[in-house]
Amino acid sequence: MRPTVLLPLLALVAAVPARADHPPPVQLSAKDDHKRTMDLLGIKELRRGADGNPKSPNAANSDEAKATPYPDLPDPLRLKDGQRVTTPELWRTRRRAEIVEDFDREVYGRVPRQTPKVKWEVTRTEKQTVGDVPVVTKTLVGRVDNSAYPAVTVDIALTLTVPAAAAGPVPVVLEFGFVFPGGKGPALPPPGGKGGPSWQQQVLAKGWGYAILVPATVQADTGAGLTRGIIGLCNAGRPRGVDDWGALRAWAWGASRALDYFETDPSVDARRVMIEGLSRYGKAALVAMAYDERFAVGFIGSSGAGGAKLHRRDFGEKVENVAGSGEYHWMAGNYLKYAGPLTAKDLPVDAHELVALCAPRPVFISVGSAQVEGTWVDARGMFLAGVHAGPVYELLGKRGLGTAEFPPQETALVAGEVAFRQHAGGHTTGPNWPTFLRFAERYVGGPGR
């Protein structure tokens, strides 16, 4: 791929068995790969990110008066040549593609033109009870074809749960989830519990199903894993180029492959699949929603920087934090440029345009309270991304948030296709599930629609 860079790195590869024509993946620490990416970009130093400790001399800004050093946002309805986008056709045929290209090159990275096929296998089918609802749960593995590079294996973990009494295909909420100690998948929610029914029970009460995808089985959440997982498989174990995809796009790719499976499963109405995620997985859920127009509704939880928060906001987490060695693997290598020598102002796109790529499909932006969750994720910055995506929704005959005034906590703005609610809890989507489900039901209806 880049021999001058790779030759010295190959000495770092561990001595593991490999065929002569398939050398093992290059092994680099996140710190070393981060430095390698800076060298490729000709960057000697990055600006320091903000500190989450409010007592630190470099504490993250939480003063709204200082939050907008770059107030001018890119216009989602103006072509690169300056022409105004005044028709849905012009948006669909030209402007949307321009925005996607900018996100691909500078922010999230490019997915290879051809990625390996995924063969889904149902490894277990169980009859269970969630709360008081009988369900059928399938455990699946998506085996990614690694015949081109057998040194990397990618097996995607997915579970699908639907009501046992469903008379036909049902809507499904797909959540980005976790693997627990011992390699076990997501546990069943308790029959009842503190705080009322779980989100799974609330989904089942509507006659819908739910699925949980484990992102770490698609791509590890570390820069040290970039030569493995789906990114490493596609690169034959070599380090990334500066515009190659990062983990957020890889996780979104995994969600799309799950949706491919749903299109073959008679228990799922694949036209009514919703996607949900929290925090870094909220970022991934928004990326999946923006790039794959088959997803019907998005539930984007506390996604912050790299998600729904405006990059140009200096409030809480900053571009410089995401570009650091702990998070850079989420993004394209080119993103590092905007933490030195460039700034967020120089980005050709911003988060409002990521939300706009979801149009005309509905998106619910969720966040917790400043007192409990904190200000790191920047509730107002995510709200404003929804506000500034509104003109695209309106061009396509839909409604935005309907206001540019930040609402009081626990005020649900759900009249349009862009929705927002700040709940009184912490870093969770939990308190917003009832509001989201009522919002989503407008679009996906009941189980038999």
From TrEMBL:
InterPro entries: AB_hydrolase_fold, GCE-like_dom
Residues covered by region (Disordered): 45-81
Signal sequence region: 1-20
Keyword Hydrolase among record annotations: yes
Record key words, sorted: Hydrolase, Serine esterase, Signal
Presence of keyword Signal: yes
Gene3D superfamilies in alphabetical order: alpha/beta hydrolase
Domain 4-O-methyl-glucuronoyl methylesterase-like: 244-397
Name this polypeptide is given: 4-O-methyl-glucuronoyl methylesterase-like domain-containing protein
Organism field: Urbifossiella limnaea
Lineage, highest ranks first: Bacteria, Pseudomonadati, Planctomycetota, Planctomycetia, Gemmatales
